[in-house]
Amino acid sequence: MKKITVSLLFAYVFIQAFSPVALAQKPTGEIDSQTFEIEKRKKIELPPANRLYNKIQPFTNEEDDRKLNYEFRTPKLTLGTPKMTPSVLPVDGGKKAEEDGNLNNYAKLGGGNYGKLYGEGFFGNQLEDLSYDIHFKHLSNQTGPVDAKNSANSENRLKLNGQYLAGTFKLGGTVFYDRDNYYFYANRNPELNRDSFRQTINTVGLQVGFDNIDNSKFIDYSLKTSLYRLSDRYDAAETDWGTNFSGTIPITENIFAILQADAYISQRTDAETFKRNLYSVKPAFKFAFDAFTVMAAFKAVNETDDRLNINRSIGFPQIEVDAVPFSGVHLFAGYGGDINRNTLRSLLGENRWLGPNVTIANTEKSRDIYGGLKGELGPSFQFEGKVSYATFKNFYGFNNDWLDTTKFAVVYDADYIKVLTVSAQVGYQYKNIVRSTLRGDFYDYGIKRLEAPWGRPRTTLTWNNSFVFSKKMFATIDAYYIGGLKNKNFVTATTVNLKPIVDLNLKIDYLLTRNFSVFASINNLLGKNYERYLYYPQQGLNFLAGLSFQF
How far apart are the first and last CA of the chain? Predict the structure, then answer.
């Protein structure tokens, strides 16, 4: 009884702290004539705080029996530019590795066509209670798919991580700097000075986390905070500070009280400066038994936006049931809703060709009814399938701007629309030698105010494969398909059905000695200059090769 009283008091305090406006309050503004991408399949789970220590993992090729774990997430829409960062696949160095220890650090150098230059380095060290590492990566193309150097690009990443383990808690931190440089090369007038259509995105950030790692503690908790600053070449900027708390209290052996609370304070600067904040609190109870688990929660959200004149609070009941009818198979179903937060940084992560002063607003997932099953067929096959029927307000997409078709605007459907999502995936693995995953996602959009879900796929397929041919040779083969894309040129009133994207990539690593290996990566093997977004053809067949040094 004492435990129940403590948990209820715990939830009450955070509800009062994070819900400053009554839930019955109505919004004072809404977005008009404008579309959204949401985590349509985000699982409504309230797990206990993560107790994983996340220490630096050594490179190893020892056989293991790890399962292929699946989690349905909204796929990124930046597939149009395949990443060309070959990873040094795990190697074991035989008996020598056991004697000398594993090789955690590496340096890589490489080059390829399109004037491609690649460099990456990782250095880390782990003491008894302290671990730290520094990671740097550079990838650039001196020329691009059209107009030579006027479609060049470069990416630079620098990240420092640190982690301290005490007897009862873990303290971790990350400092990072990202710099992306590229050009708006779509239908560009060749007489223009290239600096006039150049874009540079700089992002600096800091993340700090504090977690309980003592299983004997009555309350399990995790507190994380992050701050980043994004700026571009055209005086646009975004500052975002987010803090996240999660806590779990056991009431009985099978019943747990869980609390999640989030606070985001954001300032956007472009043609004008304004603030966008979001606060949420989600108390929940989890009932876990042998044959089934039930999670019941209520999420209260308050969002404000000075530019859109929004200040409202709204609540979403959430429930999920997971049953095990027989060993190895789970049936799950759920109901819920949420406010999906969108920022300039998140939108640029999907479409880098955004123009100035794009409208940014959050998406309301007012209702999501979903169900599915997952399980195993023997020790080597895993499967999962899910169907979601959700209602969204301010569903968004990307389309060429009305005035400048070389840049994109974010367009919203301000009405409540229905989105049906059917997802399935199957995986196979044989020890640590062969791993293969095939996944498909199919969408049906009930758009109302928009002509079409601009920039959104109807079908996506991915097939990822990795092979260990020997202790010295490793390979990955990945295939992608995206179909049903549409964009419109509003200047000419022309709707364009983009050709389906079919992409095939191959990567090979070969170990020369314990310390040296060579790698080769060939992307877009079919050589198609496909367009993920209208007027932006991607590189055709491109390759990267180089040398890696492990130490």
Answer: 56
